[in-house]
Amino acid sequence: MTGENLSTRDKKHLWHPLTQHKLGKPQLPIVKAKGTLLFDEEGKEYIDAIASWYTVMYGHANEQIVAAITKQMQTLDFVMFSGLTHEPAIELSEKLMEILPDNQAKIFFNDNGSTAVEAAIKMALQFFHNKGEKRDTLIAFEDGFHGDTFGAMSASGLSSYNGPFEDFLLNVERIPVPTDDNLSEVTDKLSQTLHKNKCAAFVFEPLVQGAAGMKFHSAKGLDTLIELCREHEVLCIADEIMTGFGKTGKNFASENIANAPDIICLSKALTAGMFPLSITSCSQEVYNGFLSDDVHKGFFHAHTFSAHPLGCAAALAGIKLLNSPQILERREAINLAHNQFLSQIKSHNKVKDVRVMGVILAIDLDIKTERYGNLRDELYNFFLERGVLLRPLGNTVYVLPPFVITKEELQKVYKAIIEALNTF
Ligand SMILES: *Cc1c(COP(=O)(O)O)cnc(C)c1O
């Protein structure tokens, strides 16, 4: 058994996510990670240019975060969060309040991104139920992604994931994302939706749709849509699971819009990739909707690992780093380098579109690919062969590196992209 390599052993009992096991190459075993680098069994290095699904923003095995978790596990490993409380969760709620939009007042803990969205949707539905109002419809953007549990999946509009489940989803009305050209059209569509349906919540990824291919939309447009929802007392849920913690330039993408969301979902970089944890924050008004002498009007929703102290400790260490002078300097340097690279490649004949926001760089290639298909796999493998982990979303190649990536590492990533542009 131990004589066999990891790939062979992996095949015996493991079922990987987002994988058709009858097709494609075996999974790449990673035995070690440090900073920006991943190492395989043979010691080959790979730059983690997407920060392992935009989580490890301070680098793998970051010493400050490792130290914080180690200390926490020796003091208080875990207790349930119903009936009991603890300082890591309390301190994290205080620190989050310092950086979240001013209208946020309460923090509800969950254990991953999908469950943060699930809790947000249930909060919105119960908020109206508690008031004796029946509101049974959600509004969401086309091509949004909010997770893989049923509520979150209902809000998601990416059909490659939802196909088999479409008959079992919540009522959702979809609108296109607002651009500079289509705002009146989208506003009309939203207006009709609001009049036709009993809408409870508008769920959106603010400014950047991650899984859709790092697609950007207009902040001004989003603001207009939120304002319209407000007129109908529809709760606005910002899914900042991808955009949160400095990726768009600001700490949160919601800082770019004047109308702060009623509910915000955070995960991924929240714990710097070190621990699964998420939060659903909300305004005082939403919270007040659950206060009652009737016990059943409380929010009866829990996850065993809610507010896990190790996750809270990781999050606290991460927030300390987020706006430290060293990380701020890197955040700006990456943005500058991305913009220089954008100028360099924007007129390449294989580049259909290239865009930069904060530390996010996305390039739409002028080639035809399926979201999961041969050409996409070839691109993925092409980058791996060059020591760079990039995970193309259809024909979109995006770079969202850990803040700690060095100038040289970033140049190596760009070089691999230019080679791909000249090859495919
Ligand atoms: C990743 C992601 C989710 C789902 O989070 P999981 O932890 O994978 O369940 C939801 N929304 C957005 C915007 C995401 O990027």
Automatic annotation (TrEMBL):
Q: Where in the cell is it found?
A: Cytoplasm
Please tell me where substrate binds in this chain.
W53, K268, R391
Q: Per the record, GO CC terms?
A: cytoplasm
One Pfam family per UniProt: Aminotran_3
Q: What class of enzyme is it?
A: transferase
Protein name as it appears in the record: Adenosylmethionine-8-amino-7-oxononanoate aminotransferase
Annotated GO MF terms: 2 iron, 2 sulfur cluster binding; adenosylmethionine-8-amino-7-oxononanoate transaminase activity; dethiobiotin synthase activity; pyridoxal phosphate binding
Q: Which cofactor does it need?
A: pyridoxal 5'-phosphate
Record site: Participates in the substrate recognition with KAPA and in a stacking interaction with the adenine ring of SAM: L18
Assembly behavior = Homodimer.
The Gene Ontology biological process terms listed for this entry are: biotin biosynthetic process
This protein's pathway reads: Cofactor biosynthesis; biotin biosynthesis; 7,8-diaminononanoate from 8-amino-7-oxononanoate (SAM route): step 1/1
Family statement drawn from the similarity comment of this UniProt entry: Belongs to the class-III pyridoxal-phosphate-dependent aminotransferase family. BioA subfamily.
Q: Which PANTHER family match?
A: ADENOSYLMETHIONINE-8-AMINO-7-OXONONANOATE AMINOTRANSFERASE
Under Enzyme Commission nomenclature, its number is 2.6.1.62
Print the keywords alphabetically. Aminotransferase, Biotin biosynthesis, Cytoplasm, Pyridoxal phosphate, S-adenosyl-L-methionine, Transferase
**Catalytic reaction equation(s):** (8S)-8-amino-7-oxononanoate + S-adenosyl-L-methionine = S-adenosyl-4-methylsulfanyl-2-oxobutanoate + (7R,8S)-7,8-diammoniononanoate
Q: What does this protein do?
A: Catalyzes the transfer of the alpha-amino group from S-adenosyl-L-methionine (SAM) to 7-keto-8-aminopelargonic acid (KAPA) to form 7,8-diaminopelargonic acid (DAPA). It is the only aminotransferase known to utilize SAM as an amino donor.
Specify the superkingdom. Bacteria
Which SUPFAM superfamilies does the entry link to?
PLP-dependent transferases
User: Which residues get modified to N6-(pyridoxal phosphate)lysine?
Assistant: K268
